[in-house]
Structures are given as C-alpha cells and as structure tokens.
Amino acid sequence: MSPRSTNRSPRGTSRGEALRAGLALACGLALAGGVARAQTVRDDVFITNGQVSAQVLRGNTLYLGGSFSFVGPVTGAGVPVDATSGVPESGFPRVNGTVTAALPDGSGGWFIGGQFTAVGAVSRANLAHVLSDHSVDAWNPAPNGVVRALVLRSGVLYVGGDFLNLGGVARNRIGAVDAATGVTTAWNPNANSSVRAFAAGVSVLYVGGQFTTIGGQARNRIAALNFGTGSADPLWNPNANSLVLALWFDPVASLVYAGGQFTAIDGQTRNRVAALDASSGFASSWNPNSNNQVFTIVAGGGSVYVGGQFTLVGGQLRSRIAALDAGTGLATSWNPNAGNSVQCLSLAGSTLYAGGDFLTLGGQNRSRIAALSTSTGLATAWNPSAFGTVSVVVANGGQVFVGGSFNGVGGTPRNNLAALDVASGQVTAWDPSANNQVQALLVTSSVLYAGGNFSVVGGQIRNNAAALDLTNGQATSWDANCDGQVS
C-alpha cells in the first residue's frame, strides 16, 4: 500500500483543520488526519489490492482510504491456498519477486520457479524447493535467469526458461537437476532462445518457446526431447512459425495441444491453437482458429480449455477463456467471459481454476483468480483475491498453489475504506463500503470524515463527503452533499 502523508498547507494550517472549515464552506479542500512519523516496517500488517490514498490512526485502529476492493495478509509472490476456503497457507515462506512455475514435490512441498532472489529468509535465485514443513531445501541450483517451466519425472526436475547457467554448469535455457540434491544432471538440450512451456509425454518431453535450435536439431519453437539423452526426436518437427506458450499432452487421444502466437504449424494454417499427433507431430484437422494469443491449455472430460487474450475462438465470441470440443474444435456453450487476460488454468475434477489479469469472471467480481464450474462456467464461492497478476495455478489435493506478480493473496472484501487493528495487523469488522475512491480522511473521537469521489458510503447516499460512525461504519446524518470531488 502507498499511504499518503499529511502535509501542512501553504498558510500553516493543517489539512485536518482545513477540512473542518472547507467542508462546511465549499467542500473543496483536501483532508487527511494524523502526523507522519518514522515507523519500523512490519510485514504482518494486512495490505490492500489497490492504492491507499489516505490513512489516519486513532488509538489502536488504522483507517485506510483509497481505491481497493480487498484487504489481506502479505503472502509473497507464491503460496498454497486452501481449495475450499481460499485461505493462504500460514507459515509458507514469502517469495520476494515473481513466481511463474510451480510443481508439487509429492511429499507435501513445492518446487517453485520464476524471477526472485529470496524465499523467506533464505537466498534463492529463481528456483527453490519448499519442503512440507515450510523450510527451504538446502539445494540451490541458482539459475541465472527466469525460470518459466518445470516438470518432475522419476526423481529429476526439468527446468526451462531464460537462464544460461544451472547449478554452476552452462545450460542454455533448459536443463535438469536431481530433485533430491539439486545437482545438475548431464541432460543438456541447449536451446538457442527462450523456453516457455513443457508437457511430459510417455517417453519424451514436449517443449515450446522461442528457440530455433534445441536438442541438437533445428526446431522452430516446438520440439520433443528424449528424457534420457536430451536429443530432439528426429521425426517430430511441427515447425511453428511463432512463439509457443502452452502445451498439454493427452495420453488417451495421443495428442499434444499447443497454444501461443503462431499462425502456422506443421505447414498448416492454425491460428494460435492446434492439436498435434504425439508420435508424428502432424497437425490434426482440429482447428479452433483463435483471433489472439493463447497462454494456457488444459484438457479433460471431452473439452479442451484455453485461456489467453482472444475474443473469438472455436467459431464463437469468447472473452479470453473457452471450452473447445475435443472432437470438433468448436466452442461449447460454456462461457465464463473474463474481463481481462487469462494466463493459467488448472483442472481438478469438476472445477477449473483460472488466473490472470481479470477482475470479473464467471459472472462474479473475481480479483485475478477464480474457480469455475466445468458444467456451468459460473464462478464458485471460492474467492481468495490476488493483489496482482496471477501467472500460475496448480491444483493438488486440497490445495491450489497460486503464483505471480503480487505480494498478497486472500483476505476480506473492503471497498475503498478499511480499518486495521494495529496490534494484530488484521482487518477489523468495520466496513462502510464506499462505491468509489476515498482520497482523504479525518478522525475525531466518534466519527471518521471521508472525502473522495463516491456517491454511496456507510449504507447511505453521500456525495463525495461523509461522516462515518467509528463503531458500526454507518453514515451519520451529517451530509455536506459536495458537488465535486474531495481530495
């Protein structure tokens, strides 16, 4: 959050004093309370998912005003969240950068990759293993660039991204480490450009990205690599004409679904999404024809779910998320209608978890993460709210790992006004709920004066200024009825 400190006016009158006079006269002067003081930074204090424009302290309560819709705990850039309640797992070490890849380790812990320098109090560059007891594993491969893709197979962790070094050994954008020790293996496909996506096949690792050579062969942006040798399959060569961002292997249909920015693959016109034979690499007739890039793909139950930036796919208008019939490629009636890009998907039974940049999905307000019914497309009650872009969601048992470019997940809905208990750092029950931004605050012994650009607050119509009861958050009878913004 970005609190605004109180300044003195040019004539030496505090803004709090100016409010008392200005609201009564013309509703034109800004307000704010308290005096700025140097403080020790606390990481246990709840944060907001938007801007804080004003704050004021009274006793042990800190009142916040701004443009936000949730208040919640600091979690760092990646954390497991309860699949039922949406509450982030307490004690998980905070990641200080961006998380773009995650995998369960099979023992209650997580492998995480991205662009970061620390996990909790432990220095870790871009790749880490968090154990089930929340401790950070001693192994430290420290890739020197972003990690974008992870696959775990037979005790080996395969790693892709933008790095040139892995575990002190030269590894160009792709490599593998022993999952138990973190020691870099001999596996070395040597990609000449970014690796963005993995999908584990029966005997090969399907790889997508921006590269044009990998595994000792010329391969344009998509390849199948031998798990043992790292060499590219000599026959499997779909040859995408632009970036491949998403891959999904369907062992039943023996297909590899690919998504990205390409408009041709295997010599066929395929706009940004295609299905490839897992053995030959030939493009099938399946052709949903997306009008913009596809970031993520998962398949199950006869549907292929895609997310991205598109507005038309499978022959239908679909805003950034769609279910495509696995046989025909046509969009089904399932239509959650995302308000912005969908960057990641994870399927768990009859629930599809989605993350991205959206603020609405499945007919509900959902801040960048949501759970959708696979039958109706409607959002479930699960609503953790992420305080920034979500780049990875991975459902595993009773947890959903959420990673991205944020510092908080989970919390309590609070529209533009909130109160925090200073002792615990947590949000209180006080909830006036302003319908637009709050830009200035002043507190007295029993009332909080708020100014901004709202028209409803504390359960009443109040134009741009209101007095709110400190006990119940309701608007008092005081009604300045300002005809302009109070800031």
Task: Characterise this structure.
By secondary structure, the protein is mainly beta. The chain is globular and about 80 Å long. A hairpin with a 3-residue loop joins strand 40 (438-443) and strand 41 (447-452). Mean pLDDT is 92; it is low at 1-36. Strands 1-4-38 form a three-stranded antiparallel beta sheet, with no helix packed on it. It contains one helix and 44 strands.
Number of H/I helices: 1
Largest sheet: 3 strands, antiparallel
User: Which percent bin holds the helix content?
Assistant: under 10%
Number of strands: 44
Decide which structural class fits the backbone: mainly beta
Return Rg in Å.
26 Å
Shape: globular
Could you report the average pLDDT, rounded to the nearest whole number? 92
Key attributes of the depicted protein:
globular; three-stranded antiparallel β-sheet; mainly beta; 44 strands; 487 residues
Short synopsis of the structure:
This protein is mostly beta strands and 487 residues long.
